[in-house]
Amino acid sequence: MKNFTILLLIVITFNACTFTSYHKINNNLEFEYLEESERKTYKIFGKDKFLKEVSSVDLDDDDDFSNEFKDEEELFDPLEPYNRVMTSFNDYVYINLLNPVAEQYKDILPEQERVGISNFFHNITFPIRFVNNILQFKFAYAGEELSRFAINSTLGIFGFLDPAKEYLNLKKREEDFGQTLGYYGLSDGMHIVLPLLGPSNLRDLIGLVGDNYVNPLNNTSSLKYKIPKRTEQNIAVSVFNNINRTSLNLGKYENLKKDAFDLYPLLRDIYNQNRIKLIKE
């Protein structure tokens, strides 16, 4: 318990030094695997798969395969030296601080309760998804999000349960301001790795400001529905949310990391591919 307290204080200290957002730490560190046809950059860095594919392909005769390497070489990444240092820093914090805390937290609280807490946090950040679906003229999706919020906040006991999905098949319609800017044609700009928050880009960094403005769990605006009233409350909520999320995803980041020749380009390219996929949906 003493070690748990010490680690928790360290995590809080690190979080106090950077942006706080309800989802960014784990979303940027723990990417979902893209479909094979959509993640050509991942197969370049997968150890076993890479060796097998290279041994069976003549690069001189396969223009598409050669172009994959050419595209990687020509990628505009002026902040690469800084990004590599920050990736190593984030990796150290995640592996040596956040992960151990999440492991001990998992041993204290059963999975069902942790899933309920995750549902609660997702439900309460409904304004981000609702507003951005409206801004992208996805009115049907905005309606689904509104219905999910109303049902889960009442029948779902403040969002701890998800009867909207379980009984009515109302799906989550994830949208954020970064996706909205991409929808209107704003390019992603240079890649930026944020302290603790992980991979991002200039467009999504601007979008993060918009997310925080409407996010009920962030006190950076004067909207009346904000829950945290002071910065320390904001940090505490963010830290607890991210520890809970990490406890539900233990091992995923490590599984992704173990297949990387070079961690930084792997995380960068998966992030970029994932954002492109989300913006197109």
Report on the architecture of this protein.
With 281 residues, the chain is mostly helical. The chain has one domain. 65% of the residues lie in helices and 3% in strands. Helix 1 runs antiparallel to helix 6, helix 1 packs across helix 13 and helix 11 packs across helix 12. It starts with a helix and ends with a helix. The N terminus is likely disordered.
Question: Can you lay out the helices and strands and say which pair or pack?
Answer:
Layout (H helix, E strand, L loop, with lengths): L1 H15 L7 H6 L10 H6 L1 H9 L7 H11 L6 H29 L2 H14 L1 H10 L3 H16 L8 H6 L8 H7 L7 E4 L3 E4 H13 L16 H17 L4 H6 L5 H18 L1
Antiparallel strand pairs: 1-2
Helix pairs in contact: 1-6, 1-13, 6-13, 7-13, 8-9, 11-12, 11-15
Provide a compact summary of the structure.
The protein is mainly α and 281 residues long. It contains 15 helices and two strands.
